[in-house]
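User: New here, please read:
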Amino acid sequence: MSATAQAKTFKVGMGDPMDSDQGALAQRFEELVEDLSDGEMQVELFPGGQLGSETGMIQDTRIGKLDFALIGVGNLTPYAPRLGALTMPYALRSHADAVKATTGPLADEWNQIAEKQAGVHIVSWLYSNFRYLTNSKRPVTSLEDLEGMKIRVPQNKIMLATYQAWGASPISMSWPEVFTGLQQGVIDGQDNPDIVNYTMKFQEMQKYLTEVHYQYSLQPIVMGVRTYNKLSDEEREIIDRAGLEAQLYALQFQLTEASQARAAMEAEGVQSAQLTDEDKWISIAKEEVWPQFYEEIGGKESFDELQKALGH
């Protein structure tokens, strides 16, 4: 940055607390932006939904009211339907799949889609692991155990349809309402990765956890295209480099911290379980859910290409 450049301050809104994996990514992004710009670009973090719901923050970034939002990719799909391919049940089946889908040519493709359809530029990806099911009613080890259970899902049609196909009673609910919804019994359960479940203190109300591998939680940091385009070439380069380096840091954080979060929840009484019939969950997802959304996410051929690129 030139010595005469005017210092700028950028705000980052996010839904989770600072001691979460969102917080880890955001703090590393802040450090990198400020270091790479020699302090000429400053970043302020607003955790815990201080700036509103994820949907609201996305809208604010699109119009330039907010600089950055760190949000679940599922909440971005109403604005960029083709990104829904990443939320299709069992589309991503491992950490390696998640990384491959969000780096290199595939990452460039998602960014072009996000810019064109949603008006946002993807700066970084947070790898939050699989969304494991928690509930307050009973252990879930089979489809029959899930029958009729009220499960919170984000405002995402694919996730809603998935739980419906499995026989649950999904309820679409914004993120800031989930803790209270669990407390009051409006919902019986929800799904999120271990670090999120633990830092949100869901173990206080949810005593049963099941490892369901239907969706790998990806959470991008996005910036409105109109805001991004107003930056100098150098500023854009700093933001994109900081985003990529923070992304790599966040992956390592996830791999080391998730098991500790699970152990801490179990120490507080959470019972963990495995599915005995996940092949049935996969079959229903492929046969009943995937066909409903092919057209919306760019066509069956496009989705098949993603699966092929991931080696499925």
Q: What stands out?
A: Residues 1-5 have pLDDT under 50 and may be disordered. DSSP finds 13 helices and eleven strands in the chain. The radius of gyration is 19 Å.
